[in-house]
Amino acid sequence: QHQTVLSVPHRSRPLELVIVQPRSAGHGRLVVISHGLWDEPVSFQGWAQWLASRGYTVLMPIHQGSDLLQQQAMLMGDQPPPQADELRLRPLDVRALLDAVSSGTLLPGAQLDTQNVAMVGHSWGATTTLQVAGLLTTDAALIARCQDPRDPDRNLSWVLQCSWLKAASDSSLGDPRVKAAVVVSPPLSLLFDPG
Questions:
Q1: Which three-class secondary structure state does DSSP give residue 39?
Q2: What is the C-alpha to C-alpha distance for residues 125 and 179, in angstroms, rounded to an integer?
Q3: What's the pTM value of the predicted model, to 2 decimals?
Q4: Between the CA of residue 63 and those of 10, 11, 132, 150, 151, what are the distances in Å?
Q5: Separation between Cα atoms, residue 9 and residue 95, nearest integer Å
Q6: pLDDT in tens for each of the 195 residues of the chain?
Q7: Neighbour count for residue 86 (Cβ, 10 Å)
Q8: DSSP assignments along 118-143, one per residue
Q9: Which helix (H) or strand (E) is 144 found in, with range?
């Protein structure tokens, strides 16, 4: 396991990521794990090591606009809560990683299959995973439901989902290279078309 950085056009700072590779040659398959709100890759180290022990190379980006450091800065009054743009930036993080592996900028010579990628995500990372896997985002339910604080179905995940209103209509960022998606606890009842 090692940590590295990658310059990406959509972020002001380089994208940090953790890479976990199989001890032996592996089978050339790639998995991306996307962390949830105010989390970090270390929370998914067990998943990554398990996958690597079965031959997978695992990439875990640190989504800097909604990671643990962002939470600490927010709690100290140095930053606002995550912005709606982060809904669009997280899938772009994943796309940048896949592009970098495909071009050989990241993990040169690793001979990884970047056309058949699996992605795993938890919470907001699960939403990111669904976006990258091709689910279309929509602001229709957000517009209809977020305006009513007395809506009987309102719940804690709505706080996060309603904050995405400004970016929901332009955040369908599917990547055909992602062929399998595993999602755990995605806050998605308002963001995706139920159909």
A1: strand
A2: 16
A3: 0.92
A4: 12, 10, 14, 32, 31
A5: 11
A6: 899 999 999 999 999 999 999 998 889 999 999 999 999 999 999 999 999 999 999 999 999 998 888 888 888 999 888 889 999 999 999 999 999 999 999 999 999 999 999 999 999 999 999 999 999 898 888 888 888 888 888 887 888 888 888 898 888 899 999 999 999 998 877 888 777
A7: 23
A8: EEEEETHHHHHHHHHHTPPB-SHHHH
A9: helix 140-146
Distance CA 74, CA 37 (A): 13
Which DSSP state fits 34? E
Contact 43, 54 (CB under 8 A): no
What whole-number distance in Å separates Cα of residue 55 and Cα of residue 158?
A: 38
At position 175, the amino acid (one-letter code) is D
Are 173 and 133 in contact, with CB atoms under 8 Å apart?
no
Cα angle 97, 91, 44 (rounded to 5 degrees) comes to 70
Q: Find where tokens 């709606």 sit.
A: 84
Name the nearest CA neighbour of 31 among 54, 64, 8, 63: 54
